[in-house]
Amino acid sequence: MRRYYDRTLMLFALALFALPRTILAQDEKPVAPVGRSYALTNATIIQAPGRKIEKGTVVMKDGLITAVGTNISIPADAITIKGDSLYVYAGFIDGLSRAGVTKPKEEKQEKPKDPGNPPAERAGITPQNDVRNWLNPNDKSLEELRNLGFTVSQVVPYGNFLPGSGAIVLLGGKSSDDMVLVNNSALYSELSGAMGGVYPGTVMAVMAKWRELYKNASLNKSYAATYASNKNGITRPVSDRILEAFYPVIDQRMPVLFKSERVMETQRVFTLKNDLGFKLTIADVKEGWPIINKIKSSDARVFLSLDLPDDAKKDDKKDDKKGAKKDSTKTDAKKSDVKKEKTSFDLEKESLEKRKKESIGLYTSQASAFNKAGIEFGFSAASAKTKDIQANLRRMITAGLSEDAALAALTTSPAKLLNLSDRLGTVDKGMMANLVVSDKPYFNEKAKVRYVFVDGTLYKIEAPKDAKKTDAKPAVARGTWTYTTKTSQGSGGGKIVIKEDNGTYSGKITPSAGKDADLKSVIVDGASLSFSYDSNSGGKVDVSVKIEGDSFDGKVSAGQDGNYSIKATRDPKSN
Amino acid sequence: MKKIQLISGLIAAFICALTIHISAQNPKAKYGTFALTNATVETVTKGTIKNATVVISNGKITAVGENTPAPQGAEIIDCKGLFIFPGMIDGGTNLGLSEIGSDARTQDFNELGDIIPQMKALTAVNPNATAIPITRVSGVTTALASPAGDMYAGTAALINLHGYTPEQMFAGFEGVVLNYPRSGRRGGFDRRTEEEVKKANDAAIKRLNDVWERAVQYHKVDSATKGKDMGYYPEMIAMLPVVRGERALLVEVNAEKDIRAALKWVAEKKIAKVIFTGMAEGWRVTDELVKAKVPVIAGGVLELPSRDYDRYDQAYANAGMMQKAGVKVAIRSQETGNQNYRNLPYHAGFAVAYGMDKMEALKAITIVPAEIFGVADKIGSIEVGKTANLFVCDGDPFETKTQVKNVFIGGWQMPMVSRQTELYNEFLKREPGATK
Amino acid sequence: MKKIFILFSLAACATWTFAQDKGNVLIKNGTVLTVTKGTLTETDVLVKDGKIAQIGKNIAAPQGVKTIDATGLFVMPGIIDAHSHIAIDGINEATSPVTAEVAEGDVVNPLQVQIYRALGGGVTAVHAMHGSANAIGGQCETLKLRYGTFDGDAMKMEGAPRTIKFALGENPTRVHGTGNGIVPRTRMGVEFVIRKSFSDAKKYMEDWDAYNQNKLVKGFRGAPPVYNLRLETLAEILKGNIIIHCHSYRADEIFMLLKVCKDFGIKRLVFQHVNEGFKVAPELAAYGAMASVFSDWWAYKFEVYYSTAYNATILTKNGVVTSINSDDAEMMRHLYHEAAKTQKYGQLSDEEALSLITINPAKQLGIDARTGSLEVGKDADIAIFKNHPLSIYGVPQFTIVDGIVRFDRAADPADMRLMVDPKQNIDEPATILSEKGRDNCMDGTEFLFTETDKK
């Protein structure tokens, strides 16, 4: 996925699959766009759940939607995209994830001398931290989510107890600051303790510490106010960044955002809310149905998880495939079953399977249950695998969630819950130009996202490679590859030589600026190739790519140096 | 290092001193001819006899019956209103091999190594372990002192709970302990991935088979050469009687899947003498157990069900379900951590409360383990000619409140004291009390 | 400052009031073991709205009230386990020798199937305790076994006094002294840690009192002391608002804590395990301290080597309010049998033995006005047995909490899980066998030890 500011956009629809390789292989420096004006014509526009325009046009300029409807005159400077047979929705909004957030390197920390009183950082108490410090517009995770139609995420720093404040970001931008829509959107927290035997190690200690921090913040804040009103004659209050981070929460200006997947976790979060009285958002909720009334009667804002347990049926299918031969014996067994009485163990297994299926059903129908209970909710992608998200949405719909309600939970509801309704969530004049365009209605099983607009910038989604190909024989990886990388700091490149000896791979990377390094754990699985090496700075670099013919394309994770993309072509003679 | 030795020496001396101090006050066991009269005798093998006399002489039961006269010179113990039962046998303990659960220095049941059948429990049995009198005054007279550990953990020995050397205590059975490899996780703390668990199990099974094949090979060579010029292979020497069917293999196994695998394994290897122990999920495999005719030492009974969806009383019902299905079942207590083998009758009692036939439960802690261990000619019931291992009590031996009045082991009348009774006597009415 | 506290307490009041389920039931014609008022044969017990409304003969069933025919059965108060670790997520905050601020009440987990299994043993209430890794551990929670709820708060016994775990001897010295190289490593250190904590709490209390006093003066603008939840909790102990439940084994350490409590004016004190309590029974009785013991556990570590199964009897005969507890999810299912062992070891009467698992633990938890015996006006927490509960053949048939039948031996299905793991591997279940003789109090400290000395 790359950005296109290209004149070829005029012919975009036609050129979708036929982009000449020469262009792809060209230097990656983006060509400056002609303008920031687009017209998407003759498409089915779902402005909001329940509001549809057939054969309509959306006009965007400078990151805003300037016109929506039929009979719209297309401005002369607009790049037109023919939307015939396409479906246009407001860009989706994710309530909690770490898309685009760089994970700090995990360092092995020594146990402090007094594990009962570790430094705040070690204890996981860094509410003063700001997720903006770790944003990376080139992070692969950001692109993955965007490819599904998400345009905005509420993102938070890594960590477990009080990692810092989150931000609402656009899933794309020139720089980390460019991505930020709302900073300090919430104080993020998780009810999980510090690792390695230091305080607070358990959930109960985390909760105790939460209360203590909050109360001291309240005390400090009010004393600071006393001092500010008249500084004469009283001791100056000492600055405390940790406690000060709670001030906007105490003032109800900022909510506390808790990840609370499990039903018990959610209840514990409510316990804290009720004790302390802060504004609460719960996100990535997976087991909310048993306490749906409790959630409803609270004023907490809710984001349900897009993660679902695997469907039981899926497993069955797998078995069937494996045991195609067994099928005949299976039917035989069935015949004899009629005569034979079921043993208590058969009945036990049946009941276990039934209960498991029911259990999966409860997870799958959670969104529907919330909808029926009249709780407004959004979704969060925090723990969902991106490849499963579309299928999971369809499973929720099959389990009773209406398509309109599903769309609301992706657009209008999260916009409202994040106080962004004036800008996001619908396809209306004046809203931000965040759109998702699919080739079939989005919830259709065969629907593919074709374009995503984020803040008026167009992202074209490459058609996913034919899945069948991955099942094929391992791709040929050996050869001499010339690669280019694109990082936030600029482009790079060099050569990679991969050798194969009876299925065992080895190789060497020669960056054009830097020293050689041997490749480690070179693995070829289907069309996937992965390997790692030690960079010149000493850090470990992981590379994983997909090979297609004589080219590959993929990503590089280089620890603190961030994630970036890599492309390469092979010297055809070297294979 | 020296310092530590000195300290542990001092501690040992301290403990010894204390033991000596207490035992100095202890009445001794008494040997001779006894006539236990007017008792209700539960022979286990030959029915219940009321108003009966049991005569003990030269360590043996010499007479049992209604109108049996007391021999001349016999010490007469009037058991009017009392009951006589055969001494109970606990088929799963570490008695004599452990003093304090958390102190490795006092534990002798867990040697290093995974293939160590040559490690003999009998060697390490401490005849003066504190738990021994505590156990026997409750009517448990015989116990399997069993090593624990990895795969082939050692050789267990059946001991009577009286004597001053291991030989004096030995009750005539030894068996090699095999902890059959577990295919599942070890518990909630086991965080291995499914793949890792499987891999570990595969490796263990391979090792199990390799060892067995080696033992069979050793047996062949040893037979062919009549043992001449064989090198010193201690593990193989210890395995030899098992391969030859002269000594039992005690297979500790609990999960359904593992029980099935173990049944298959012993059949494949044609192992002649096999006893399955533990058997928490034996109730799931009763048909196969009956077919294989493998005797079982089940327990402990007072356990949680092994699966979260099992019926709440599944562990209590397990032994009874196996027995009803036709499996030969003995019950053990397995209370190793807190040395509470005295609770053996309660394990049997709970099995009864949750479905086992009462007589079968009594057999499961007397004659059945004796049969399983091949010592039913000596112990396990009250019959003339058998070793005088028995106890006298004032009621149903499973009932919690029942008081054991007298215990005989090998014809010796046991003093009815233990450290726990001594502490009771000293502290019930402490002197001085709160004020001196 | 005051304002803030008012705000906090308002917030606390705003918590949901949960509609506790309360049931109505008539138990007909049973042998009623009231524990405090003798044994009544062929007697009925009428429960209305979760309370015992009437005990007598030939009570007519009010319309629509379910009747349980208890002919030939024994009806006793629901069993109370004064030492348990079920229904909570997390037992030890083992990182510090003093963690008074943490509370098991925050991590109640009503979904554990162990709760149902305890009901199967006639248990209706448990004291869900923090572990024994710390000299001063966390606060405990008294729970009623209202199995079926998903709401942790609904498990809490409303109005039960606050309690806290203390621990003496090997566990805290091993975890902190041996494990982390910080005081305490000895029983001397344990005493010091407790005395210092109480002293700090006293100072803290005085600081806050002074601040609050000053605030009454018009124009006062001073800085508040730093809020410390740990000292705040310890101060509540000094004020008599929290009952200490102290894990202890040896007579000397028990005596030590008696003296410390005396010095700080603390009266509400229950010793847990207290294996050598029998040695200082007169002192315990004189102080009014209570004891919650194992029936017969010993030998699992050095400090329980000189134990005796006659402990409960000696304590009882010396006038100490004594209970028998489990500290174990399996043993808690047959506390009636554990109580019966006092009839083997010391020949206690039926009433004395039953008191050990009903009214006495209720006293120790400060809930004896509401539970622990069958009396009109008390909570309808009842266990109905086939055969006498002190008999080995006693089998609980029904267990009733607040008048609601939560366990019905004949009617309940085998699988009683409230939530089913949607990823459960049905074909290859993980077999988890319990380990007997283990000190459950040390859960959550495994990372500190090697395999061999985990017990």
Name its key features:
heterotrimer; B: 436 residues; alpha/beta; eight-stranded mixed β-sheet; 13 helices; 21% strand; globular; C: 455 residues; 27% helix; disordered N terminus; disordered C terminus
Biggest β-sheet of chain A: count, sense, barrel? 9 strands, antiparallel
Shape of chain A: globular
Strand content of chain C: 15-25%
The overall strand count of chain C is 16
The percent range for helix content of chain C is 25-40%
Biggest sheet strand order of chain A reads 20-19-18-17-25-24-23-22-21
Q: Helix content range of the residues of chain A, please?
A: 25-40%
User: What is the number of strand segments of chain A?
Assistant: 25
Distance from first to last alpha carbon of chain C: 47 Å
Q: How does the helix and strand content of chain C classify structurally?
A: alpha/beta
> How many H/I helices of chain C?
12
Number of separate helices of chain A: 18
Largest interface: B-C, 69 and 69 residues
Q: How confident is the prediction overall: mean pLDDT of chain A?
A: 86
Distance between the ends of chain A: 27 Å
Rounded average pLDDT of chain C? 92
Parts with pLDDT < 50 across at least 5 consecutive residues of chain A: 1-32, 315-337, 466-471
List the topology elements.
The complex is a heterotrimer of chains A (575), B (436) and C (455).
Chain A: H1 12-15, H2 21-25, E1 37-48, E2 51-61, E3 64-69, E4 79-82, E5 87-90, E6 92-97, H3 120-123, H4 140-147, E7 150-155, E8 164-170, H5 176-179, E9 180-190, H6 203-229, H7 241-244, H8 247-250, E10 256-259, H9 263-276, E11 280-285, H10 292-297, E12 301-305, H11 312-322, H12 326-339, H13 344-364, H14 366-372, E13 377-380, H15 386-398, H16 403-410, H17 412-417, E14 435-438, E15 449-454, E16 457-460, H18 467-471, E17 479-487, E18 490-501, E19 504-511, E20 517-518, E21 520-525, E22 528-534, E23 540-548, E24 551-557, E25 563-570
Parallel strand pairs in A: 1-4, 1-5, 6-7, 9-10, 10-11, 11-12, 12-13
Antiparallel strand pairs in A: 1-2, 2-3, 5-14, 7-8, 8-9, 14-15, 15-16, 17-18, 17-25, 18-19, 19-20, 21-22, 22-23, 23-24, 24-25
Chain B: H1 2-25, E1 34-42, E2 48-57, E3 60-65, E4 75-78, E5 83-86, E6 88-93, H2 121-124, H3 131-136, E7 140-145, E8 152-160, H4 166-169, E9 170-179, H5 194-225, H6 234-243, E10 248-253, H7 256-268, E11 274-278, H8 286-292, E12 296-298, H9 314-325, E13 329-331, H10 344-353, H11 358-363, H12 367-372, E14 390-393, E15 404-409, E16 412-413, H13 419-427
Parallel strand pairs in B: 1-4, 1-5, 6-7, 9-10, 10-11, 11-12, 12-13
Antiparallel strand pairs in B: 1-2, 2-3, 5-14, 7-8, 8-9, 14-15, 15-16
Helix pairs in contact in B: 5-6, 9-10
Chain C: H1 2-13, E1 25-33, E2 39-48, E3 51-56, E4 66-69, E5 73-77, E6 79-84, H2 113-119, E7 123-128, E8 136-144, H3 152-155, E9 162-167, H4 170-180, H5 187-215, H6 229-238, E10 242-248, H7 251-263, E11 269-273, H8 281-287, E12 290-293, H9 311-317, E13 322-324, H10 335-344, H11 350-355, H12 359-365, E14 382-386, E15 395-401, E16 404-408
Parallel strand pairs in C: 1-4, 1-5, 6-7, 9-10, 10-11, 11-12, 12-13
Antiparallel strand pairs in C: 1-2, 2-3, 5-14, 7-8, 8-9, 14-15, 15-16
Helix pairs in contact in C: 5-6, 5-7
